[in-house]
Write a structure and sequence with these properties.
single chain; alpha/beta; Leucine Aminopeptidase, subunit E, domain 1; eight-stranded mixed sheet; binds zinc ion
């Protein structure tokens, strides 16, 4: 999708469709619909349909006016943004996605979006561009009759400093494209997204944006004594990949170094503790955490914050086979800790244990991991919020700000010492499953043992990395959750 900026009068913008936000400024259950622009021509063009009572301003409501009077646009789309009181860049981002999705199915290929008043113009432009890219993504690659209905060009109509608006647009574009890059990776089925292919995709992208990228295979994984990672990989005929990407901009200080560690299980059968057949096909998205890190690195390399960032993706399948690990096996992690394997389906924490430890060895001073780690986080938070865990309040606070700016939802869950009880082993240092209760917390407690005293955040995205249904602003399928917040955090981290 091409994007461009227009500082013209909205009435003068020649476009297939000019989109404006309408809000409800009425008190309580009264509605009072307003068009969010200071431009009289646009308000006049909307006046009649609003007076008709047809427009309520409800979130995602679309009202299309053809040949709007005195506007050069062929159509005027009035897009409901809900109550004015609660309207923010978060809603605006979703509205932009909804506009794209509404218009592309109506055969429109290019349109303009008028930045609404009330949100800073640069923030608005960024949110609109990001949201538009999210809305434009479709996961139907393998349909022979795919319609390829896409928006090809988006014009942002805004008022303000041209250079700054252009910079905001450029940033939104990088972030939006990177989120979709991640979604592309997650969308692929496991036969087309093996650890080797994932590594190849990371390598190719790294070359394009100027990142260092190394990929290590089974020999090196064993040489590094990554016994936890290898214990998962050993069961598969598909070779594992330890993907290391480095962003080391000239002039960045030696420290801090941000480490991004991603779970890259390209298919999770559960291993010998095999999963039920029903729904197992979904386990192709068990590499969404790794894909989020790769997408975030793409954006970071292009946005160039002055801080070092290292990403590590532990990619492997989790398969049952004659070579697979079995319940009861004891594995020695890279850190030296011994792990009793209670359940081979708790494999994510095993690969991350070595990923986190390795990141620290590579000099990372702060860690963030992202993983589709537990079904339990879906029980706790559903499909709305991802779970976030932190061993450092300050780092959490900083990430919470990044979440807010990026418009992503995560809810903090606890890490009290008491939870450690259930991951104690009779014969080893730790077990890999704490059982059913508090499953996402005990999984995080396991990871904490490998982050040790390094400030660390853990994002459990099992419920949020895949949209179970289409929404007005996003297709059913991979969501690209965490990419935007990680990028925002890295920018903030650079100071
Ligand atoms: N990849 C799964 C978690 C998952 C579940 C992701 C649903 C996406 C949707 C993970 O490897 C897993 O199997 N976790 C187990 C842990 C248990 C055995 C302790 C789970 O959540 O059941
Ligand atoms: Mn599993
Ligand atoms: Zn898994």
């Amino acid at each position: 999708m091409k994007t461009n900026l227009s500082l013209a009068n909205p009435a003068e913008v020649e476009t297939e469709c000019l989109t404006v936000v309408v809000l409800d400024r009425g008190e309580k259950d009264k509605t009072e619909v307003t068009v969010e622009t200071g431009d009289n021509a646009v308000r006049d063009a909307a006046a009649e349909v609003i007076a008709s009572g047809e427009v309520t301003g409800k979130m995602f409501e679309c009202t299309l006016v053809h040949r709007p009077a005195r506007l050069k646009a062929k159509r005027l789309l009035l897009l409901g943004g809900g109550k004015a009181k609660t309207f923010s860049a978060f809603e605006l981002r979703r509205l932009a996605g909804a506009a794209v999705r509404a218009l592309k199915t109506r055969g429109v290929r290019s349109f303009a979006f008028l930045a609404p008043q009330g949100i800073g113009a640069e923030d608005a432009v960024r949110a609109i561009v990001e949201g538009a890219f999210v809305g434009n993504f479709e996961p139907d690659y393998y349909k022979s009759d795919r319609k390829d209905q896409k928006i090809d060009a988006l014009t942002l109509v805004a008022r303000g400093d041209q250079a700054r608006l252009a910079a905001a647009l450029a940033e939104g574009l990088i972030v939006g494209e990177s989120q979709n890059f991640t979604r592309d990776l997650v969308n692929e089925p496991s036969n087309r997204m093996t650890p080797t292919i994932l590594a190849e995709r990371a390598r190719k992208m790294s070359q394009e944006v100027g990142l260092k990228c190394e990929v290590h295979g089974a020999d090196r994984i064993k040489e590094l004594k990554m016994g936890a990672f290898w214990s998962v990989a050993q069961g598969s005929d598909e070779p594992p990949a330890l993907i290391v990407m480095r962003y080391e901009p000239a002039g960045a200080p030696e420290k801090p170094v941000l480490g991004l560690v991603g779970k890259g299980i390209t298919f999770d059968t559960g291993g010998i503790s095999i999963k039920p057949a029903d729904g197992m096909e979904k386990m192709k998205y068990d590499m969404a955490g790794g894909a989020a890190m790769i997408g975030a690195m793409r954006a970071i390399a292009l946005l160039k914050p002055r801080v070092k960032v290292t990403a590590i993706v532990c990619a492997t399948e989790n398969m049952p086979s004659g070579k697979a690990q079995k319940p009861g096996d004891v594995q020695i992690a890279m850190s030296g800790k011994s792990i009793e394997i209670i359940n081979t389906d708790a494999e994510g924490r095993l690969v991350l244990a070595d990923g986190l430890y390795y990141a620290r060895q590579l000099g990372c001073t702060h860690l963030i991991d992202a993983a589709t780690l537990t079904g339990a986080v879906v029980v706790a938070l559903g499909y709305v919020n991802a779970g976030i865990f932190a061993n450092d309040d300050q780092m959490y606070q900083r990430f919470a700000r990044a979440l807010d700016k990026a418009g992503e939802k995560m809810w903090r869950l606890p890490l009290d010492e008491e939870y450690k009880e259930v991951i104690k082993s009779n014969i080893a240092d730790i077990v890999n499953s704490g059982g059913r209760w508090g499953g996402s917390v005990t999984a995080a407690m396991f990871l904490k043992e490998f982050a040790e005293d390094t400030p660390w955040l853990h994002l459990d995205i099992a419920g949020t990395a895949w949209m179970e249904d289409a929404k007005p602003w996003i297709a059913k399928g991979p969501s690209g959750i965490a990419v935007r917040s990680l990028v925002e955090f890295a920018k903030d981290f650079a100071g």
